[in-house]
Amino acid sequence: MSIFFLSAALISGALLGWALSITRYALRTKNAIVASNRHLTRVSLWALLGAMGAKLALHRALFVSDLSVFFVAIGSSVALTVVFVLVFWIVSPRRKSSAMKKTEKNTLADLPEVQCATNDQADNFFKELLPVAVNVGFILVGFILFWFLSDSHTDGIPIDTFTDWLLRALLCFIGFDLGVELRRLDLRLLNSGLLLVPFLNIALSLAVGLFFGLLSGLGIRRGALMTAGMGWYSLSSVLLAERGMMVLSILAFIHNVFRELLAILCAPLAARISPLLPVYLGGATSMDVMLPFVQRYSGSEYTLVSFYSGIICSIAVMPLVKIIIYSS
Question: What span, in angstroms and rounded, lies between the C-alpha atoms of 28 and 295?
Fold first, then answer.
């Protein structure tokens, strides 16, 4: 989808939200509008997840014919996710502060207040797992429905067009919520080093691809090509297919699809490690599909960071793939 249309949808929504925040409507009316917008965001998101499951089912021929290709691609996406999580877990300030307080918690463990706090933390953890289960459920619903439909029934369903319009609507809703909150957000608190986020994301993604290719026997060049799509499965797989690399095209498609799915499913827990981790996991999809998850779990102040990172990663996909292809 065109970055222009996505940007237009986000900016239009933000302007509408900002306009609402400065109008003289009654507070109850404003709250009702904001609540309705957030409800629409949730419904649109669930529909998008269902559409993603449906698209995965429509492309089942790519991995059903050769399960070894499927498992290699899945393994690479899992490896990338695990590496990102480990890197952020090691450098996360939250982990360090948690470690510093560990002795105090052990000392006070017998106090009733501390026991209640521990129970609350456990409850909060399981509450974070609930959205993961819901997201999986909607993906599975779309997948199962389209898995059992014959080609004659699915040929006339414009699933790609539906997904494109749904994404535009979703970004408009997210922009609206951001516009409402804009007056209360202090974006100056964000570190200027966040400008490096997409470039570090690209470097780490390629590094994971190189090492996975080396360890799996796939080859470092093929491993790098697989991860160079940065989650944009439709572009990277097409570029590889045009060069006659059909098997690698299938690998890249499945890898990037599952990178996106794992980013979505891990977002609630990833944000507990670092608010930037969902942005990194999303790669190019941080500007569209991952945006509502970043907004919800990382905070509204990271919405713009996510969109910026996604745009840079998306722009980088085509030159990265072509450079690696012609590097041999």
Answer: 24
Which amino acid is located at 137 in the chain?
A: G
CA distance 147 to 102: 49
- Rounded Cα–Cα distance for residues 73 and 56 (Å): 14
In the chain, what are the domain boundaries?
Answer: 3-325
Around Cβ 127, how many Cβ atoms within 10 Å? 10
Per-residue pLDDT tens over the stretch 210-249 = 999 999 888 899 999 999 989 887 777 777 877 888 788 8
Say how many Å lie between the first and final Cα of the chain, rounded. 30
Task: Write the pLDDT tens digit of every residue in 43-57.
Answer: 888 888 888 788 777
Which residue shows structure tokens 């909060």? 124
Residue with tokens 């907004």: 295
Q: How far apart are CA 263 and CA 266, in angstroms?
A: 5
Which of 61-75, 175-189, 212-226 shows the highest mean pLDDT?
A: 212-226
